[in-house]
């Protein structure tokens, strides 16, 4: 069952030392159809990234598989030289063979190449947060994480996270390298990973829900509409505000290729849901 927090903090320290605003930006939509190829309108895509940072966003999430590779290059083209305090998280662990095609690859040589490629494309000497995009069931995670450990020791990676994992996956990975974040599917309408979220909250790990803008099942539509009208907000803004109130370690990375939608998303952290609003949305019955 979801719980409220007494107050909604606006920032979180990833790994204890990377202070970020809890409302960040996810770059995946700044690619072609099927997350394949470069952004169709590259100039607007660069402006979206620049405007995000100008608005105070200092946490951007990407992956080597977005494009593939084009999203990381776009971020560097738009924002390098990077302003102080900007945290860029990327991911590795997928092969891409075409639009909407994702093949898990946890082979150590692939992971090593992914890390070095991300560093080069992002024009960084160190990746702030590198996340394993998926655990490869055909490769022991200890082997997959071997090059990650080497990269941490070499100063190429500052912090390490995981994506779409169970608690036992986190605990197994932690025997190899410290884990500071988890990125799982979670939103108002899909709370499958509730147990993992609560685990990360207890552990002080960042929880980064992907697909955060889903506004819930049809049976919640009436409640969401009422609460949105009360706050003079959109349903998407209410969905984001609910996540921010759900747990203090949740970091949001809504993505958009539209400047107008970006402004709308960015305003979600100004919405303070009451405990009654939160409870009404949290009740899935």
Automatic annotation (TrEMBL):
InterPro entries: AKR (IPR020471), Aldo-Keto_reductase (IPR050791), NAD(P)_OxRdtase_dom_sf (IPR036812), NADP_OxRdtase_dom (IPR023210). Transmembrane segments: none annotated. Pfam families: Aldo_ket_red (PF00248). It comes from the Bacteria. CDD domains: AKR_AKR13B1. Keywords: Oxidoreductase. Gene3D superfamilies: NADP-dependent oxidoreductase domain. Residues 22-281 form the NADP-dependent oxidoreductase domain. This is Aldo/keto reductase. It comes from Larkinella bovis.
